[in-house]
Amino acid sequence: MSNYVMDLRKIVGHRPLVMCAAGIIIIDYQGRILLQQRTDNGKWGIPGGALEPGETLEQTASREVLEETGLTVDSLHFFGTYSGQELHHKYPNGDEVYIVSVVYVSDDYHGQLALDRDESLDLSFFEINNLPDIEELNPPDRVFIADFQKRYAYALRLIQSEG
Q1: For the whole model, what pTM was predicted?
Q2: Which helix (H) or strand (E) segment is 161 a member of?
Q3: What CATH number does residue 124 fall under?
Q4: Eight-class DSSP state of 93
Q5: Three-class SS of residue 45?
Q6: C-alpha 57: how far from its chain's center?
Q7: Taking Cα atoms as reference points, which of 109, 135, 118 lies closest to residue 34?
Q8: Do 145 and 137 form a contact (C-beta atoms < 8 A)?
Q9: 68-115 pLDDT tens trace
Q10: Number of helices (H), then strands (E), in the chain
Q11: What one-character-per-residue DSSP string does 99-141 give?
């Protein structure tokens, strides 16, 4: 969790915060997506995290990916902005947030996967049609992972109908 959010928590306790976050759906050369198994709840999600004061959302997304996976992302493509009740989350420690999340997609990265043991239990690339069950996905990430699956399936249908 970011220093900024931790400082706010000292003031507001577990009360709900609006938290701006950014993450990246990373796609490897085989078309699989990278998921991170989180230490806080054991669920799988995309690498990402909270915006720090003065950062751009792109900087946040790239920083979080580097911290959590060891990968450096060279270019980002906007995927979507998510907010609302679906991104309301209560952490195991009782902290409550309403997340506003900006999600990017990238297949342009370099480096070797490296676990940050403070934030990740595991890192793994998954086939888009063979992801962990919905209950195994981090609740705030479920909506944009589902959107990515739908768009991926739609793009495949278009490509196949043209071929």
Answers
A1: 0.90
A2: helix 142-162
A3: 3.90.79.10
A4: T
A5: strand
A6: 13
A7: 109
A8: yes
A9: 999 999 999 999 999 999 999 998 899 999 999 999 999 999 999 999
A10: 3, 10
A11: EEEEEEEE--EES-----TTTEEEEEEE-TTSPPPGGGB-GGG
The CA-to-CA distance between both ends of the chain, in Å, stands at: 46
State how far the Cα of 134 lies from the Cα of 128, in Å rounded to an integer: 13
Residue 1 to residues 9, 48, 75, 118, 155, Cα–Cα distance (Å): 11, 10, 24, 10, 35
- Tokens linked to 149: 């699956």
Based on the number of CB atoms within 10 Å of its own CB, is 30 exposed (0-12), middle (13-18) or buried (19 or more)?
Answer: exposed
- Count of beta carbons in the 10 Å neighbourhood of residue 65: 28
Containing structural domain, residue 115: 3-162
Q: How many angstroms separate the CA atoms of 46 and 113, rounded?
A: 14
CA distance 95 to 69: 25
